[in-house]
Each structure stands twice: as structure tokens, then as C-alpha cells.
Amino acid sequence: MKAEQAIDDRSGISLHDRIRDEIEANVMSGRWSPGHRIPYEHELMKHYSCSRMTVNRALGTLVERGLIERRKRAGSFVMTPKFHQAVFELPELRSQVVAQGKTYDFDLLRRELRRANAADRSHLNIADGEVLHLQCLHYVDAKPYAFEDRLINLELVPEARTAAFDREPPNSWLFAHVPWSDARHQITAFNADAELARKLAIRPDCACMMVERWTWRLPERTTYVQMIHPGPLFSIEAAFRP
Amino acid sequence: MKAEQAIDDRSGISLHDRIRDEIEANVMSGRWSPGHRIPYEHELMKHYSCSRMTVNRALGTLVERGLIERRKRAGSFVMTPKFHQAVFELPELRSQVVAQGKTYDFDLLRRELRRANAADRSHLNIADGEVLHLQCLHYVDAKPYAFEDRLINLELVPEARTAAFDREPPNSWLFAHVPWSDARHQITAFNADAELARKLAIRPDCACMMVERWTWRLPERTTYVQMIHPGPLFSIEAAFRP
DNA sequence: AAGTGGTCTAGACCACACA
DNA sequence: GTGTGGTCTAGACCACTTG
Question: Does residue A11 lie within 7 Å of nucleic acid chain C, judged by its CB?
């Protein structure tokens, strides 16, 4: 019974990986178009001389990846590819910059502890409470690279009360100290107003990219941040979702 | 043997889903910090009165999601969360707009079949060959929403030679006709020049968002496109990677 | 009614890393 | 060596859906 496995076990790849890869290749190359019915589990069992669990595992992975869809009594079908799903990384700025051999600095421009105002309550989705409002400028090779404008929900992150944020930037501090479970991002392009242009040392009206992030520790929001970058210095790269 | 399953089978959720969810909750809430060793498969088997395969499946899913790491002989450990990975969707414009009950239109501004020039060769990473250059404007509710500037590698997509692209926009046509295996995106903010401003009916210098996409059918590039949106009308939403 | 996929079991052998 | 995870088997029952 293990004989078949041993025979097929070339190059250290597991059998379910091989089955998955071979089906994936058929889909990706277009040989199996969207809507094509792929072989039944029973047929794949015979083809690969393996048990149904092994086939099932391979197909289950393909379902998670969105490549196939499975319908009881009908079979498994190639899905119309979800062209549009892409994954990107928003780097933790300081370590990213240092890793590239560039210099990183930041200035804390504002640190205000206050009772939440209307805008704060909206951003953090709270009825009341205290927030910490931080603004700082990030520099890469001594040039302004990002303006950070952040709210921290002090009910959820009381440790932030006593953090100075004068040596460690807020994003790094939060990453290290605050557990989180979910985040939502919005990316927008807009023209800099005079004050932002002054801070970022760009001309007024220069196109900027804003990345807003709401972070949850379910079910509540811990922090809201706007990271605003000069358009000419910043871009986001994203790959098709692997 | 099936008795235990029947007893635990509440609310139609499978057991491996329940195991995965409960471990996930412990990680997400911070009760199990990064580095924490989660129970051995053997312990989880006892706790849930199930077989090792069921536990293994739950843990395997968590590995794929990047929440835990498994080391032989040592156990399974909570990973440091990858803060920065986020996933977004770039909708197929027409169907997206129509689904929202808005009107969609587009104008084909340019359709040129030519020998690849230097820029074309660079964008498509080819040494020579013919390309199709398309430009069109997409309208949502009769207002310009995007300017599309696209190159198609005719060696790889010969069917595009005979497609008119006067009724179906290039992105929809390609989506339906051309298999692809990989894509890379770049998102940039920039100020509109006079000509672009005229096309998009925005003021010159208005911030725009450009999404560039290179699409592969491995190992070659099938198409390169710039989608340029008026900043005030467009944003990208992204969720933490599920 | 029949055949598909969804899920699970109770074993098993193996590689690997650590003691 | 020892115990972990990685993988696989040869069954099983069930729900669902479709012919």
C-alpha cells in the first residue's frame, strides 16, 4: 500500500502538492477554461493511485485559492479567475528603510491627550473616552517621506499614555506592543494643501498618496492612522494573490 | 466513534472549523502571544475527542494563513503577525458599476496596431514583435472615471488583432478571452497634465491615481495597462489578508 | 435514486530535530 | 532514542443536488 507512494515520491514533493500543482497548471495555462469540469475525486484517485483523502486535500486547497468550485452531485469546476485580487505589503517604515541602507529619522510634531471629539469618535467608532493624538514626520535620507496623523484609543491601549514616542515612532511602538486582529486600509490620491506642502517640503497642490488604516482588536478599534506621502516619492507594489 | 462527532456537531459547523476558530481566537485576542506554544496535536485530539487528521487539518489551515508555525519535535507556535500584508480587489469595471445600478459607458479613443517601439518592448519585455495599443475612456454615470492606456502582446494574444473593442472594453475582453497566470501592480499618485485633465474633465494639476498592471502568461507578458483615475473619484480599499 | 463532495476515523510509516 | 509534525490509507456516514 505504501509501495505506490514510494514509487511516486520523487524529489521530496508530497503527493497532494503534486496533484494540486498539476491541476493548477491546467487551469493557469488555459487548457482547462473557466467552467471546465475537472475529473471526479474517484477518477483522480485512480489516476494517482492514492486514497480519496489525498485527492480531497489537493482540491480543498484549490478551493481556498479560488481556482475551482465544488458542487455536490455535479463535480468540481474551474472558476472564472478572480483577476482583481492582489496582495501588497505596507512596510514598517523604519526597519524597511534601514534595511535598504538609507537613513531614517522622525520628528514628533504633536502629542495630545484629550477627550474624544466628534471626529475622533467617528474614526474610532466609540461613544466616549480618551484618545491620544499623534502627528509626526518621517524622513528618509533626511527628506520628508511621510506625514503620520494618528489616533490611539486609550481605553484599549492604556500603555500609550506613558509612551513618549520621541525615540520610537508610533507605528513601530504599536506593532511591538499592541495585539491586533484585523485592519482595513483605504488608499487615496489628493492634492496637498499649503500646510501639508510645507511639512512635506513639496509644492502646494502636489499630488499625494494617503494610506488610511483602521486597526481592530475585535470587536473594537484600537487606532486610526493617516500616512500621507509625496506622490513623486511613493508607490505601492502589489502582486497577484498567491 | 461517530457518537462524539454527533454530540459536538452543533450549528452545522465542522469540527476542524471549530478547532481552527478557537485557536485563531486565542491568537487574535492576544491570549496566546507570538512565540506561545499551542497544544500538541495529541493534546488537541483528547480535548476535542477527535482523530489526529482532524486536528492536523485545522492546524494546517492556520499555517497557510500565517498564524502559526510548526516545527518537528518542538511543536506549533504562534507567529509574529505580518502586520503589513493586505489584500485588495481591482474590480472589473463594467460589471462592478452595473452591479451598483450605475450606468457604464466607454469610448475607444485609439486603436493602433504597430511594430513594438522601444517603450513597448520595455513594458512587455520583448525583443521584437507586434503590439496593439489601445486607449479608452471609461464613464460612470456619464462622468469620466478612468483613462485606460493599454498594450497587448500580439504574439501571445493573436485573437486581439480581430477584436474591434468598440462594444466591449479591453479589460473585459481580455478577462474573458486570455488566460493569465500572474500579475503585478503598481499604484502611484501624480498630477494630471493638461491633456489628461481634458480627457478626464478635471482641472490641470488635479491629483490622479494610476494603477499600472503587468500581466503574465508565464513566462511571458501578455499585456501592460495604465488605469488612471481622478483622485477625488477613486480610492482602493484593502483588508488585512484573511 | 444515485452519485457527488464534506467530513471524519483509527490506524500507519516516515523524516526530522532535539535530548 | 524519542516525540513531534508530515503524509497517507481504506474505509465510513452524511447532506446535498441533480438527473
Answer: no
Cell of A217: 482588536
Dist. CA A20–CA A58, nearest whole Å: 5
| Residue-level pLDDT, tens digit, chain A, 242 residues | 333 333 344 457 899 999 999 999 888 777 888 899 999 999 999 999 999 999 999 999 999 888 899 999 999 999 876 666 788 888 778 888 888 999 999 999 999 999 999 999 999 999 999 999 999 999 999 999 999 999 999 999 999 999 989 888 998 888 877 777 788 999 999 999 999 999 999 999 999 999 999 998 878 899 999 999 999 999 999 988 76
Look at A86 and B86 and tell me if their CB atoms are within 8 Å: no
Give the whole-angstrom CA distance, residue B190 versus residue B195: 14
Say which nucleotide is closest to residue A75, CA to C1' distance. C4
DSSP β-bridge partners for residue B115: B130
The separation, in Å, between residue B137 CA and nucleotide C4 C1' comes to 46
With contact defined as beta carbons under 8 Å apart, do B230 and B202 qualify? yes
Map grid coordinates 483613462 to a residue: B147
Q: For the CA atoms of chain A, what is the radius of gyration?
A: 25
